[in-house]
Amino acid sequence: MTATASSALALTASWPVDNVAAAVVRGGDIIATVGDIDRSFAIASLTKPVAAWAMLVAIEEGSIALDTPLGQPGCTLRHLMAHAGGYPFQGHEAIAAPERTRTYSNGGIEIAADGIAAATGLAFTTYLSEAVLDPLAMTTSTLDGSPAHGLTSTVSDFAAFVSEVMSPRLVSPGTRDEANRVHYPTLSGIVPGVGRYTRCPWGLGFEIRGDKSPHWTGAHNAPATFGHFGGAGTMFWIDPVADLGLVAFTDRRFDLWADEALTVWPQLSDAVIDEFAGAAPRELAAR
Q1: CB 3.0 to 4.6 Å from 21: which of 13, 78, 155, 286, for a disulfide?
Q2: What is the tens place of the pLDDT at every residue in 224-277?
Q3: Structural domain spans, the chain
Q4: Does the pLDDT at position 2 exceed 80?
Q5: Mean pLDDT value across residues 268-287
């Protein structure tokens, strides 16, 4: 399908960044783009969902299980993928018992990736390529460093990943649904740079919007919307009610324009929902 021009994506022209590229995905196709979707960007924590997908492949292959113990006593792969393992933002030394709080953790994802490497006998970088990047023809995406934040990619490549999550081929639909449901729903926690929430829903590698307010997705996004944003000034979401995905990459670090990003990202999200899905998602989400 040929991508069309989009009044929603045109909003990115006013963003205070040097370079931006974005795409809207529906039905496995990119239906609208702006900017150079083949330009490489550091995508920071958008690495986590891609790494999580490789972990799900390993689970389906039988190399490991969600409830395999990893890390501190009582901690499992499931805890680590859902940021419930008790590990800090950085580092591999636990700061709390598992399942006490939603502590967003690069270290926890790194421990999970080490567990996949031990279970498969392959370096995680190699396993990620063989399990996800190569099958999805993400030929310009490379992991250099941490499986929590070390991926470089393009909007074109990442849109292929979004399409995979929306209509999975590498894992079963049931495994996809397991990844996108809330695990440990009573946990409170912080979305770094956004806010603290009494309920901080998270799936397996994906943040879930839920009733978080404020949030970096739009007011028109359904509560079931899931995705991630990255410290490199990158974001993506999938709204299963609207049957839409949005990817937007920039080359300006989030902390250098956080206040603006948390204004323009929701504006863009709402405009995409309105342009490509109309009012139906809002009405369904309110029921």
Answers
A1: 155
A2: 999 999 999 999 999 999 999 999 999 999 999 999 999 999 999 999 999 999
A3: 9-286
A4: no
A5: 67
168 preceded by a cis bond (ω within 30 of 0):
no
> Terminal CA-to-CA distance of the chain, rounded, Å?
33
Residue at 202: amino acid letter = W
How many other C-beta atoms can be found within 10 angstroms of the C-beta atom of residue 77?
Answer: 25
pLDDT, residue 278, reads 61
Evaluated on CA atoms 151, 154, 157, 159, the torsion sign reads positive
Write phi, then psi, for 258 (nearest 5 degrees). Answer: -55, -45
5: pLDDT confidence band, cut at 50, 70 and 90? confident
Q: Please give the Cα distance from 57 to 197 (Å, whole number).
A: 31
Q: In sequence order, what are the residues at sequence separation of 6 or more whose Cβ sits closer than 8 angstroms to the Cβ of residue 283?
A: none
DSSP symbol at 94: -
The pLDDT confidence band at residue 286, using thresholds 50, 70 and 90, is: very low
- Residue 243, both tokens: 């049957």
- Tracing tokens 């958008």 back to the chain, one arrives at 46
Which CATH number applies to 9-286: 3.40.50.150, 3.40.50.10420, 3.30.470.20, 3.40.710.10? 3.40.710.10
Transcribe 186-212 into DSSP letters. T--EEETTTEEESS--B-SSSEE-TT-
**DSSP character at residue 22:** E
d(CA 202, CA 113): 18
CA–CA gap between residue 171 and residue 221 (Å, rounded)? 25
Asked whether the predicted pLDDT for residue 137 surpasses 70, the reply is yes
142-181, pLDDT tens digit by residue?
999 999 999 999 999 999 999 999 999 999 999 999 999 9
Asked if residues 273 and 46 have their Cβ atoms less than 8 Å apart, the reply is no
Q: In whole angstroms, what is the distance from residue 219 CA to residue 267 CA?
A: 9
Residues 6 or more apart whose Cβ sits within 8 Å of residue 263: none
